[in-house]
Design a protein that fits this description.
This protein is mainly α. The protein is built from 21 helices and seven strands. Helix 20 links the parallel strand 6 and strand 7. It binds iron/sulfur cluster (2 copies).
Length: about 500
């Protein structure tokens, strides 16, 4: 437990009084030159960085009409101010979305608007100075890019895009974040965030086959690099070893087995996550996405299915075709890509899976909607499928389910507090405080309905919950994978083996 005060959980949410500067000390570790080099950025602050930062900002604004509109159109109505979990949990006014935006908007105004050039003080325009850069580094690493604020903004201003732009500018002048950049570098080199090489991955998967055989008596396979398989599974590497993620991977394998599907994992593209989105780097985003294309082509698969990972699903659903398409070589009968929940839901709808819900009768379950799935993607061919499908999968596997309060789920879901490249121990205070609104909503269903299990479809959410639940006096193993529930309830038929 770190040395800070965990926020109190209250019966009703309150908008906190402002406590200026409470999180001014919070900064993630800065990337070392080798981490910067691995993602194509300068190792340290470059000469004439002020001008280079302004130039980069100008380039981003000229390329993205959305960014320009977001920077130009805020009317300071205040609707977003109490919508950010980091403001609610830290009470630092710079964590209000509008204030966070203004850290960058003030510089944009100074160099790219008439009023800012000639009457800077009148319009709150600021020069690009070292103090400004430091403030950016501090507070743009207190935004999980969850987009909750944008749901409530009458103009749809997306602070996540502004936060990505700020990080992109900082990377370009040599000030990167260690956690994200080191991870992206590993992915480029080895194929996954963990730096897990092919032999270790193969061992892990063989071990899982033995475990499932011991548990069920059934030969459920975890195939690796199988040429000619129908399905390529792209899943977060945390699924290969972390708890509770691994139960999800076992669940996917059991579903594939029950469906008689031919599938494989790729050792070349053994990672669904793409942290390049967090740092706003299009070049890195594309480079990572192209690994998936290459793996699909090399293995000759017909379809691509993504495992449980929130931001990976956003990148896949919203950007994969633009980044690495067209995928004309895949079977056009299936969406490209498809989410594992869509796949399982479809089998459930067609009566292809057998469940014994009582296997989960020790659990009273709620569902945590992950931000990137909820507010930046969809699932299936129905509006709101990203909310409905995971819940329908859960309800097929459990007898006891209760949603959290309506203003804390679906498109209004609260971030777990660890998204957007903030899932690092050097930001633990921020992560714990930012989790407060989610923990408060959780406490309500724990007290009212006896909820003792949270299911999620995001690797980051699962890791973040595991760390922060104990700070709020919950059991750390309350969090699980949706396909962990599937895994426990599904009935496999050994006769088919
Ligand atoms: S995107 Fe999320 S974390 Fe960032 S300011 Fe908005 S609500 Fe806060
Ligand atoms: S809700 Fe939108 S327009 Fe209003 S202050 Fe926030 S960002 Fe500006």
């Amino acid at each position: 437990m770190a040395d800070f005060q965990t926020p109190a959980l209250r019966e009703y949410p309150i908008i906190p009084l402002l406590h200026e500067g409470t999180m001014a000390h919070s900064r993630p570790f800065v990337a070392k030159p080798e981490h910067q080099a691995s993602v194509g950025f300068p190792g340290e602050l470059v000469e004439n960085w002020e001008q280079k930062a302004v130039d980069k900002l100008g380039e981003l604004v000229s390329k993205s009409r959305a960014l320009q509109v977001f920077l130009d159109s805020c009317v300071k109505c205040g609707a977003c101010t109490d919508k950010c979990h980091y403001y609610l949990g830290t009470e630092d006014p710079k964590n209000m979305p509008v204030a966070r935006q203004d850290l960058l908007r003030s510089v944009y105004r100074r160099y790219f608007t008439f009023a800012g050039k000639y009457f800077p003080k009148l319009v709150g325009a600021r020069d690009m100075t070292k103090d400004v850069l430091d403030e950016w580094y501090t507070y743009f690493h207190q935004c999980s890019q969850c987009r909750r604020c944008s749901v409530f903004c009458p103009y749809g201003i997306d602070t996540a895009e502004i936060s990505m732009a700020a990080r992109d500018v900082m990377d370009h002048v040599g000030l990167g974040q260690k956690y994200s950049n080191e991870i992206i570098g590993k992915l480029h080199k080895i194929g996954n965030n963990l730096g897990l090489p092919e032999p270790a991955l193969r061992d892990t998967l063989e071990g899982l086959e033995e475990d499932v055989k011991d548990e069920t008596g059934v030969d459920v396979k975890f195939p690796l690099d199988v040429k000619g398989a129908d399905i390529l599974l792209i899943t977060p590497s945390a699924d290969f070893f972390a708890e509770p993620h691994i139960d999800g991977l076992i669940g996917y394998a059991k579903v594939f087995h029950a469906a008689g599907a031919s599938w494989t994992i790729s050792s070349y593209a053994s990672e669904a996550a793409n942290f390049s989105m967090f740092i706003g780097s299009h070049d890195n985003l594309r480079k990572v996405a192209l690994r998936i294309r290459k793996a699909a082509l090399d293995l000759g698969v017909k379809r691509i299915i993504f495992g449980e990972c929130g931001h990976a699903w956003r990148v896949a659903y919203s950007f994969l075709n633009t980044l690495a398409g067209p995928f004309e070589f895949l079977d056009p009968k299936y969406p490209v890509p498809q989410h594992i929940c869509e796949y399982t839901y479809d089998l459930i709808q067609r009566g292809k899976l057998n469940f014994d819900k009582s296997a989960n009768d020790n659990l009273v379950v709620t569902f945590h909607d992950s931000c990137n799935v909820s507010r930046a993607s969809r699932m299936g061919d129905m509006p709101g499928g990203q909310f409905k499908i995971p819940r329908e999968v859960i309800k097929a596997c459990v007898n006891n389910f209760h949603d959290m309060a309506p203003d804390t789920i679906n498109e209004s879901t609260y971030c777990c507090g660890g998204g957007g490249g903030l899932l690092t121990d050097d930001l633990m205070e921020l992560r714990v405080k930012g989790a407060m609104p989610r923990m408060q909503a959780l406490k309500e269903v724990v007290d009212e309905h006896g909820v003792n299990h949270v299911a999620a479809i995001c690797a980051i959410c699962k890791s973040q919950y595991t760390k922060v639940l104990p700070y709020y006096k919950f059991e750390m193993d309350m969090i699980g994978s949706v396909h962990g529930l599937v895994s426990k309830a599904i009935r496999l038929n050994p006769v088919n083996d």
